[in-house]
Amino acid sequence: MKSELTRNKNNLMKKYDEIEALVDKQKTRSKEESTRYLQMESDIKSTTKKAIDMIKRKERKLLDELKEMSDEYIRQLKADIKSGELSIKMYQLQAELIDHTLQSECDMDVYEMYQGCEDGDVDAVGNADLKEKGRIASIMFRQDMDKLSRAVDDLQLGEIDVLYESVLNLKATPVLQGTLDVRVAGDGKAAHAIDITVLVVNGTDTVVVTDFNNTNMKSFYTRNNKVSHSKLSLSSEPYCVTKVKHNQVAVTVPDTRQIVTVEVNPDLVLLSTISTNKQYIGITSLTSSTLAAGSQSPPCVDILDMSGHVLRSISPLHSGNNILQSPSYLCTTRKGDILVSDWGSRCIVCLTPGGDVVFTYSPTGDTALKWPRGITSTSTGDILVTQVPAQSHLSD
Which of 174, 323, 361, 378 is most buried by a 10 A CB count? Predict the structure, then answer.
């Protein structure tokens, strides 16, 4: 019994030492986190101050321009006033001279005054003020509140990234929570859902899918305990979809070289059709006014504005060869990087919006990517990729 108790005591002391070491480590981490918090707080304030200083510099420039133009306009107006007052005095003097002549009994004085009026001397007095060229007609302050709102929305001071411990259990068995049948009445062909996204519109979870075979997109939602749906027909087969705003998505339509924007409320309403120079397949939203889209010909990822203009084209190279071959599925990480699922090169590529390669992932052997398709990243920083068997891919 004493021997057993001794072993128990030794086990307890071992655990005591482990916990004590863990507590000491946590105390150190707590102090470090307090220091890091103060540093991050300082960084946020510094970044905000820089943004405010930039706005104030623009304000100062605008005010200086306004003052310069306003001073010039007021100078012109004062010159007009001075010239007008001088003309008034001249007209008054001329009128007095004519009145004096009319009272004169000398016919020669009347004749000379008459001749002077006939020759236009009176009008010449009034037109003595010559008009300057390039005169200011008016000054107005014109502002585009929509453009300003978009700029403020796109302003990125930074993001708070939180990495949780042991949230995603890779060894756990996945559990099916439910299945959504995307076939609806009126479909002429078997539904083929290419891509999917989920939005919360006015508190309603809304699933938006692109149906390639039926050339439409659909939304599914539950309202008043009843499952409902809406359908929006498109000019050609839609491919990928991305959330642009809380109630707006963008969808690629490769065959017609288009990207369409659609409002989700939760029924679908077509907002705009954007014409593009390339056939884009993959798409993801970087900000509310910029998109990243993947093209197969040529293989690249383009950064676009909402009018379809290419701001930057990314074609990263490795050993002289383009890493991208078929960038068909894209998503944006919490840090603003672009994840690309490329089934042509059978790899995952992470790009910055500036075009730098963060990493490439192309494992071999049993873990090799077969035909990578849809891709997303979680709040924990994990990356999830779907795959389809080679036979299924070839039959698409």
Answer: 323
Q: Distance between CA 391 and CA 372 in Å, rounded?
A: 13
Could you tell me which CATH class the domain 193-395 is placed in? mainly beta
Alpha helices in 164-217 (DSSP H): none
**Which token pair is 131?**
């008009």
Task: Mark 148-166 as b/e (b = at least 16 C-beta within 10 Å).
Answer: eeeeeeeeeeeeeeeeeee
Instruction: Give pLDDT, residue 130.
Output: 47
C-alpha–C-alpha distance, residues 341 and 328, integer Å: 7
Asked whether the predicted pLDDT for residue 13 surpasses 50, the reply is yes
**DSSP-derived secondary structure for 236-298:** S----EEEEETTEEEEEEGGGTEEEEEEESSSEEEEEEEE-SS-EEEEEEEETTEEEEEEETT
pLDDT of residue 394: 36
Residue 356: φ, ψ to 5°: -80, 150
Q: What is the β-pairing status of strands 372-377 and 193-201?
A: unpaired
The structure tokens listed for 41 are: 């707080």
Tens-digit pLDDT profile for residues 92-140: 988 888 888 888 778 887 888 788 777 665 555 445 444 555 688 888 8
State both tokens at 223.
Answer: 């309202």
Task: Calculate the alpha carbon distances from 323 to 61, 115, 329, 359 in Å.
Answer: 45, 93, 15, 11
The rounded Cα 99 to chain-centroid distance in angstroms is 76
Helix (H, G, I), strand (E, B) or coil at 159: coil
231-286 pLDDT, tens digit per residue, is 999 999 999 999 998 899 999 999 999 999 999 999 999 999 999 999 999 999 99
Task: Using alpha carbons only, give the angle 336, 339, 340 rounded to the nearest 5 degrees.
Answer: 145
The distance in angstroms from the start CA to the end CA of the chain is: 72
User: 3-class DSSP state for residue 298?
Assistant: coil
Residue span(s) of the chain under CATH 2.120.10.30 come to 193-395
Q: What is the pLDDT of residue 244?
A: 93
0.70 exceeded by pTM:
no
Task: Tell the burial category of 83 from Cβ atoms under 10 Å away from its Cβ (0-12, 13-18, 19+).
Answer: middle
